[in-house]
Input
Amino acid sequence: MATILATTALELSPEKKKEVIAALGVSIGEVFKTYSLYFQQLSRENVAGAAVDQTTFYVFVPPYMEVDRRRTLIKKLHDTMVAQVGNKGDLKNIVIFKYHDDEACGVDGILRSDAKAAAAK
Output
């Protein structure tokens, strides 16, 4: 399971935004069986510096996620963005991983470690 928050300062039409989100969903789905993607488009007046034309992906996953799987996701996200919007230059597709263990997340009102313990009984 991965939760991915994507913020972008790209100028995308509503139709193109839908295409980008759909393509990202396919790419992410090749790495994770279950995922949530939140895609937020920021207006140009709300960014500065390198953030212009930049997309940053914040990926929330357990700390035991394999390094090769992380590499694969980074490559797929980058390749998908380039295929969808073109190469915008260096430092334009950023992926940041945030790790959480089972005692640092909950699902449906239950701490994940408690749910696992109950399932093991």
Notes: The helical segments are 14-29, 67-85, 112-120. The chain has one domain: 2-120.
